[in-house]
Amino acid sequence: MTIPEQTLTRWQVHLEDAKADQNWVNWMQHLTKLRMELCDELQAFLDSYLNGEISTQEFQSTFDRKTRKEWEGFGMKGMSGAMFLNMLVKYLPDETVLAHHLKRALPAPESTEMAGKVIQEFSQFLETAIATGKVTRRQVQPTRCLFFLSSWWHIQDVEKWPIFYISARRILEQESLYSSQSDLVEDYLSFRNMFQEMASSLEVSSWEFEQLCTRLQESQAEPATPPEAATEDESAEADLA
Asked: At CB < 8 A and 24+ separation, what contacts does 82-88 make?
């Protein structure tokens, strides 16, 4: 999809306004430093799990504990992050099978085609567990896997795999640059493509564009709130049926 010239011009004005705001500039400097450190820690933690040094139970419990405060910065502690993993470990009966699927899904894909296959395979794993009566849809909520998987991919390759943040999606939807198709693969890949195209056109990093989206969303809310790291999608879009 080609970005309309008037849309890009409007976003360039938004970016100039943000860069003229010293509070925003200071926030970006703080967030960038924090996230660079977190990426190193989370990558090492993920590697320890993928290499079999810790169990799925240890992976889940440590992730749950540390994302509450120590690993804040990516919004990974909530319903589509640590709590999503908590539910998988709690309700899926076979830890060996769960570990198999997690270890296939968590490494960053080498291509968009592979990303689509991973999302499809992992979501189908959850759908099959639901269909066979092992869990209920409310217990595992398959739609939340997009935030969970993209978060881990982002940690491994920041510029290639943006996190499926609701703030960015809502702003892009308002600009008619993205819309949900109720298909997990299409939803993430179309979001990713437009996110990257916008960031590239504006000549900003993934984190700068993400935070610009957050800034724009917050400017539409009343009252205004201080800048915060983007948080995960905890909206009614979660599959609770």
From this structure: 84/141, 84/144, 84/145, 84/147, 84/148, 85/59, 85/60, 85/148, 86/60, 87/139, 87/140, 87/141, 88/60, 88/140
